[in-house]
Design a protein that fits this description.
The protein is an alpha+beta fold. Helix content is 33%, strand content 12%. The protein is built from 7 helices and 6 strands; from the N terminus they run H-H-H-H-E-E-H-H-E-E-E-H-E. The strands form 2 sheets. Strands 4-3-5-6 form a 4-stranded antiparallel sheet, with no helix packed on it. A hairpin with a 4-residue loop joins strand 3 and strand 4. The longest helix is centred in the middle third of the chain and has 14 residues.
Length: 202
């Protein structure tokens, strides 16, 4: 019997969030979305995930307003794109990855990120020391780090990410006729304005 997805007995927002992103593969699907992966075949090749499991995760994330389906420029395939709700998960994805780099990467960081406008590597908290700001994911470039194993993965997503720094949220394999990206849609229940957040410090 499966464990299920619900933490109905927990009066906790972390429990509610885990109902959305806590299943196996879900955070890796979201990671790939930030990297610019958009199509089913590329998710599957990069993650080596069973087709039925991937379909379930994409369906659930779409139903929960984390991803949205958009017709691909070719008119044949479908793109999965992060919504405003999905974009808000970047600090979670980034922080978990940095925890892994610190404690589970004995050969050094597998990936690191730079702030595109100033070409400065951000810290483990995502802070740009040159600009003294927390850049949004769209302003970050992903690089292969010294601890990466270039022989481990041969799929085209891994190969593309190894070739050159890639800007997050930029489509990894754009169609020549692809239209310019549009702003992500906000969920229907999103607040009219975001609450004031104190300025971050490094």
């Amino acid at each position: 019997m499966g464990l299920g997805r619900s933490y109905a007995g927990q009066d906790c927002s972390l429990a509610r969030a885990l109902e959305v992103v806590g299943e196996r593969w879900t955070l890796l699907v979201l990671r790939d979305c930030f990297y610019g992966v958009r199509r089913f075949a590329d998710f599957r090749a990069h993650l080596e995930i069973p087709r039925a499991v991937l379909a379930d995760r994409l369906k659930a994330l779409t139903a929960l307003g984390v991803l949205e389906r958009r017709p691909h420029a070719t008119g044949v395939e479908v793109d999965y794109v992060l919504t405003a709700r999905g974009l808000d998960l970047w600090p979670t994805v980034f922080t978990l990855a940095q925890w892994g780099e610190r404690w589970l990467a004995p050969q050094g960081a597998r990936r690191y990120f730079t702030h595109a406008p100033c070409d400065t590597q951000v810290t483990a908290t995502g802070w740009c020391p040159a600009c003294e700001t927390l850049p949004p994911p769209a302003d970050l470039l992903i690089h292969q780090g010294p601890g990466a194993d270039p022989e481990l993965r041969t799929d085209r997503v891994s190969a593309a990410l190894r070739k050159a720094p890639h800007r997050l949220l930029t489509e990894l394999f754009p169609s020549p006729s692809a239209p310019p990206p549009s702003a992500p849609s906000a969920p229907a229940d999103a607040p009219a304005s975001a609450p004031t957040v104190p300025a971050a410090t490094p």
